[in-house]
Amino acid sequence: MTKILTILLSCSLLLVLVAPLQANDSAMLLSDNKEPAKQPTVLPTKDITKETAAQLAKQRFPGRILKVRAESRQYRVRVMQDDGRVVNVIVDGRSGRVKRED
Q1: What keywords are annotated for this sequence in UniProt (predicted)?
Q2: 27 has a pLDDT exceeding 80
Q3: pTM score, whole prediction
């Protein structure tokens, strides 16, 4: 009876120790030197250039372009309109969608 209990305890302990390793196995790939493989850094790409973003902002909000600032997935464009008001515009870096910043 004690042998059966010892075997059951050993098996359950083994399962408790191995189960988390199996769960993380698909997320962590090991290289030859047994260190976790580094995931490649994926930088967001932009389909719209800075110049195109400025043109799109100017079409929607006519005026003089003061500044174009690139961010991760969008551009912030500052436009001075003919009446002297400054409008901050956001241009989506992929779709080209233009909207006024609130």
Answers
A1: Signal
A2: no
A3: 0.54
